[in-house]
């Protein structure tokens, strides 16, 4: 497409002068929710070269541009497939970090394989005649590089460290060398890649090279770091994972990191609540409720899952590897939102959710007087041996729960605490269905909490329209809607004694 792309010719044909690397400032790599390992990798005193490989659609360009913005130094971008206008459209946050003259259209500078071989041959002949072999060796390596790389080097600042993204190296070198089936193509490629790493190592430049294919190449031996982006389907959802293959000089405490591309930004998903980032948690504030429902008390849950809808029970299903106590901040937000909105709250808890502990933690969000006035908690009846008659206390409890369901009430039931109080499974299922029917008739919110392994869950779940599942993946708690279907959310919570509950939710797209 010679006439369709912006034409940019080389402005300088000599190699960029060699500059002694300057130590980076402590804040050289900004947060931008980048993985800790990559931030440490680019905080080294010397220039680093990172190879990013992965299949199409895994977010290689998004990661590279997020790094370019997060490095907080002049950034440059050599592209073989993306127009500057496309960068502006897909990454509007990048405009202030990447001006148009920092983007090189490499396709407009391709000389073709024949031109490259003739050019390289002349340089080698000239080098043989030179008395200063080191100087002309450096010149030979520089002039061996594709014109797009030569062009961007002519634009890099001489006295300041900069960052360079080549997107993609495959798309740049393959047309430059000719078809891979041509004789000596592999040898020529190795020579060019060695020249590239040599030039980058001597320059004061952090380089990020993107490969379009996930397969192994000889370039991995030459660079300082190699990572791979993967996209997998897990339980019908798209999950993305960054795998570390090599980060020279950086201790790797894990082999991979989950990430999201939500909002056209690369966001690493930490495994634990980031206490060092005070802005991560979403503070509690009373949110506007829908006309016929209740907000979760968290904007991200309302945005991704939709608010809690009245007249419909909601099932929260927990994978066995998810600790129920880690969800307490979520339930505390719901209780606070309901009471602050003038609703009544009723709970049927079990030992991990004792009313005393729940009151002590929830009063960090709302005054204790309001809790005592508007919160009712029932203690589950004693265990019943399977096959025994269901005691009257259990039937009375079900009647009390049903009476507590009104137009403006939120009722939370831990099903494991209820299931063991019945003598038979059919009676237990009938009781849960009767609670669901009462919500359909009267309105209000019914929140049912159950582990995936609970007997009878498969008979209850199909009749519930709002079914949300929590599961653990790579030691990270995730949640997503089964009915209706939603993207996954990473759930990071902090519930330390004496502090307000912290909740950080990250949508994974």
Structure, explained:
Helix content is 32%, strand content 23%. The protein has helices spanning 36-41, 60-70, 84-90, 113-129, 133-144, 147-153, 169-177, 185-202, 219-222, 299-304, 328-340, 355-362, 368-374, 392-404, 415-419, 425-442, 457-460, and strands spanning 49-54, 75-79, 103-105, 162-167, 205-211, 225-234, 237-247, 256-260, 267-269, 293-294, 308-309, 313-318, 344-348, 375-378, 409-414, 445-451, 466-473, 476-483, 488-494, 502-508. A nine-stranded mixed beta sheet has the order 3-2-4-5-1-6-7-8-9, sandwiched between helices. A nine-stranded mixed beta sheet has the order 14-13-15-16-12-17-18-19-20, with helices on both faces. Strands 10-11 form a two-stranded antiparallel ribbon.
Q: Whole-Å distance between the termini?
A: 33 Å
Question: What fraction of the residues are assigned to beta strands by DSSP?
Answer: 15-25%
CATH class of the largest domain: Alpha Beta
Number of strands: 20
Question: What would the principal axes of the Cα set say about the shape?
Answer: elongated
Low-confidence stretches: 1-27, 112-117, 122-127
Structural class: alpha/beta
Question: What is the helix fraction of residues, given as a range?
Answer: 25-40%
Instruction: Figure out the total of helices.
Output: 17
> How are the strands of the largest sheet arranged?
3-2-4-5-1-6-7-8-9
- Name of the CATH superfamily of the largest domain: P-loop containing nucleotide triphosphate hydrolases
- Report the C-alpha radius of gyration, rounded: 30 Å
**Average pLDDT, all residues:** 80
- Give a quick account of the main beta sheet: strands, pairing sense, barrel closure: 9 strands, mixed
CATH architecture of the largest domain: 3-Layer(aba) Sandwich
Total domain units: 2
CATH topology of the largest domain: Rossmann fold
């Amino acid at each position: 497409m010679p006439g369709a792309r912006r034409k940019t010719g080389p402005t300088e044909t000599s190699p960029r002068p060699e500059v002694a690397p300057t130590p980076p400032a402590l804040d050289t790599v900004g947060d931008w929710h980048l993985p800790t390992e990559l931030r440490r990798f680019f905080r080294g005193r010397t220039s680093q070269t990172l190879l990013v490989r992965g299949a199409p659609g895994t977010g290689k360009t998004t990661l590279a541009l997020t790094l370019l913005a997060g490095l907080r130094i002049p950034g440059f971008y050599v592209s073989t497939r993306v127009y500057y206008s496309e960068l502006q459209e897909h990454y509007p946050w990048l405009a202030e970090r990447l001006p148009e003259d920092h983007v090189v259209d490499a396709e407009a500078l391709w000389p073709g394989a024949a031109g490259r071989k003739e050019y390289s041959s002349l340089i080698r002949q000239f080098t043989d005649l030179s008395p200063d072999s080191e100087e002309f060796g450096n010149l030979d390596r520089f002039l061996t590089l594709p014109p797009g790389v030569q062009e961007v080097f002519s634009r890099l600042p001489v006295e300041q460290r900069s960052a360079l993204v080549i997107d993609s190296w495959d798309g740049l070198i393959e047309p430059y060398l000719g078809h891979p089936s041509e004789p000596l193509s592999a040898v020529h490629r190795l020579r060019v890649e060695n020249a590239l790493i040599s030039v980058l190592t001597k320059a004061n430049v952090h380089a990020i090279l993107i490969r379009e294919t996930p397969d192994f190449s000889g370039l991995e031996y030459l660079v300082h770091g190699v990572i791979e982006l993967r996209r997998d389907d897990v339980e019908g959802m798209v999950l993305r994972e960054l795998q570390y293959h090599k980060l020279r000089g950086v201790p790797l405490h894990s082999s991979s990191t989950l990430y999201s591309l939500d909002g056209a930004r690369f966001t690493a998903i930490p495994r634990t609540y980031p206490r060092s980032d005070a802005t991560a948690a979403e503070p509690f504030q009373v949110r506007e409720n829908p006309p016929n429902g209740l907000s979760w008390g968290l904007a991200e849950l309302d945005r991704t899952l939709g608010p809690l809808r009245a007249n419909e029970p909601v099932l929260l299903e927990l994978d066995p590897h998810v600790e129920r106590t880690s969800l307490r901040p979520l339930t505390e937000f719901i209780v606070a939102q309901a009471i602050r909105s003038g609703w009544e709250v009723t709970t049927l808890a079990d030992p991990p959710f004792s009313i005393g502990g729940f009151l002590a933690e929830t009063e960090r969000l709302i005054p204790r007087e309001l809790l005592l006035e508007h919160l009712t908690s029932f203690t589950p009846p004693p265990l019943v041996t399977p096959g025994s008659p269901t005691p009257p206390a259990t039937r009375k409890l079900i009647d009390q729960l049903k009476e507590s369901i009104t137009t403006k009430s939120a009722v939370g039931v831990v099903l494991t605490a209820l299931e063991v109080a019945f003598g038979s499974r059919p009676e237990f299922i009938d009781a849960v269905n009767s609670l669901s029917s009462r919500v359909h008739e009267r309105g209000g919110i019914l929140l049912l909490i159950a582990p995936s392994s609970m007997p009878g869950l498969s008979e209850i779940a199909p009749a519930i329209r709002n079914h949300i599942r929590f599961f653990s993946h790579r030691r990270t708690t995730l949640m997503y809607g089964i009915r209706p279907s939603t993207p996954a959310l990473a759930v990071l919570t902090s519930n330390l004694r004496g502090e307000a509950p912290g909740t950080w939710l990250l949508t994974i797209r």
